[in-house]
Amino acid sequence: MPSSCPAPDGAELVRELLAINEELSRLKDLDAILDRILTESRRIAGADAGTIYLVEDGRLRFGYVHNDTFIRQGDVTKDIYADFTLPIDGTSIVGHVAATGQPLDIANAYAMPADSPVAFNPSFDRKTGYHTTSMLTLPVKTSQGTVSGVIQLINAKDDAGRAVPFPQDARVVLPLLANAASVAIERAIMTRELILRMMQMAELRDPSETGAHVTRVGAYSAEIYHKYALMQGIGEHERKKTKDLIRVAAMLHDVGKVGISDKILKKPARLEPEEFAVMQMHTVFGTRLFQNSTSELDAMSGSIALNHHEKWNGTGYPGRLADLAAAQGPGQPKAGAEIPLEARIVALADVFDALGSRRSYKPPWPDEKILDLLHTERGAHFDPDVVDAFLDIFDVIAAIRDKYAEDQPGPDAGTGTDAGTGS
Ligand code: C2E
Ligand code: SIN
Ligand code: SIN
Ligand code: FE
Ligand code: FE
After folding, report:
1. Phi/psi of residue 408, nearest 5 degrees
2. Is 356 exposed, middle or buried (0-12, 13-18, 19+ CB in 10 A)?
3. How many CA atoms lie within 13 A of 166 on its CB side?
């Protein structure tokens, strides 16, 4: 792929940075933004691999990774759901850069000068067989100058693919890119927090559905879509754009529960048929929230809220409704490809997560029972191609479930748990 592009001149450089900034400002979701930042900074530096860490609760939390040696470009990977933190101090290179706020440029990690302020930890290389040579580690700073993250690029490559020191122009340009990144990252973190707060309002009255559920359904949906898109030959540009939108929109699938009374929402037992009929209206209430908007995110959020309980075989709800504003009950059910793809995906992600979770009306199911149900419902409740995509990436699904395990603190819960073990 693009390793060392010719050193850009000043005007071209400015144009390029503006274009990157523009692109970052279009993306909604944090993961899509981190993915893009790594793509662009690795392209500029000709780097084989890169990792982003974000400051959270006084530590560096792993945020996102690229590695062309281990991860086939464009593939679905569980590596981006790694879950560990590092202290902000001189015990690691990234910790040192976060602590000092100064970039660190290392030509050869295994031949660092004796007066280096920090030592290279070869444990990742030993564990994986990777060979780290050059490392360029940059702080990401907010407009106030506080460090909010670290970008670490590894192994700049020459035209023959050999690892070489980072070129001079990369050392000049990348700090500028890191500045643009910082604004995009802050905005995306605010978007996620805003959504979690909205969902707390809508659902935390129902204590079984938590921020973690919402985050998992968003991530499952994004990765199922990614795999589905690869299987169907959907182009990279559309794939990345839709993956960004679906993660955020899927988090909002049950926002219409805000319109359901506590008596039904919190009932610690099976719902009576007339109660379930009321509950079904959460799909319609949800979609109404997104109706008078032209944004693509609102369009997808409305589509998912409305259609996530439709079933492939035409036995779901709420069905075709001529007038959403006036609808009081279900219409003729939708079936097959008439149900929008994003809703077919969220349907599976939501049920998978609901079955594995404790609900006021049921205990969590073991995986075996859940997978049995998915096989039974392949082509019945669920789009068979979506089930196939899901099963194909089950290792990624499991990594997401581990990372966003149930009693993770929501945005209001204050200090986080540091489950991180380091790598
Ligand atoms: P939810 O709890 O998030 O469940 C989402 C979907 O997962 C359900 O959609 C259903 O398709 C599937 N699901 C959940 N639990 C089970 C289960 O034990 N067996 C099977 N086969 N599928 C299950 P559904 O049925 O349309 O329900 C929508 C929402 O209505 C649920 O969201 C929940 O909030 C509420 N709900 C449904 N049934 C009951 C109930 O018996 N009691 C209470 N209190 N709430 C219910
Ligand atoms: C993303 O994680 O949002 C983009 C990754 C991709 O589609 O390759
Ligand atoms: C560090 O920056 O020290 C952690 C990453 C690595 O050891 O390669
Ligand atoms: Fe729902
Ligand atoms: Fe749900």
Report:
1. -55, 140
2. middle
3. 31
Q: What is the DSSP letter of 360?
A: T
Among the listed residues 77, 26, 54, the one whose alpha carbon sits nearest the alpha carbon of residue 420: 54
Q: Structure tokens of 103?
A: 């970039």
The torsion defined by the Cα of 6, 239, 351 and 343, in degrees rounded to 10, comes to 150
* Best residue for ligand 2 mutational test, from 232, 239, 251 (most atoms within 8 Å of Cβ): 239
pLDDT digits (tens, 9 = 90+) for 56-95: 999 999 999 999 999 999 999 999 999 999 999 999 999 9
Domains and CATH numbers, the chain: 10-187 (3.30.450.40), 211-403 (1.10.3210.10)
| C-alpha 253 to ligand 5 mean position (Å) | 7
pLDDT at residue 423, rounded to an integer? 33
3-state SS string for 302-328: HHHHHHCCCCCCCCCCCCECCCCCCCC
In the predicted model, what is the mean pLDDT of the chain? 91
> Does the beta carbon of 246 sit less than 6 angstroms from any atom of ligand 2?
no
Lookup: tokens for 62: 């792993």
Task: Give the pLDDT confidence of 381-420 residue by residue, as tens digits.
Answer: 999 999 999 999 999 999 999 999 975 444 333 333 333 3
Closest-lying ligand 1 atom to the alpha carbon of residue 317? 26
Nearest Cα residue to 3 out of 185, 147, 163:
163
Smallest CA-to-CA distance from 153 within 94, 206, 113, 205 is with 94
Which ligand sits closest to the CA of 270?
1
Q: Which ligand lies nearest to the CA atom of residue 87 in the structure?
A: 3
pLDDT of residue 422: 33
Chain center to CA of 273: 37
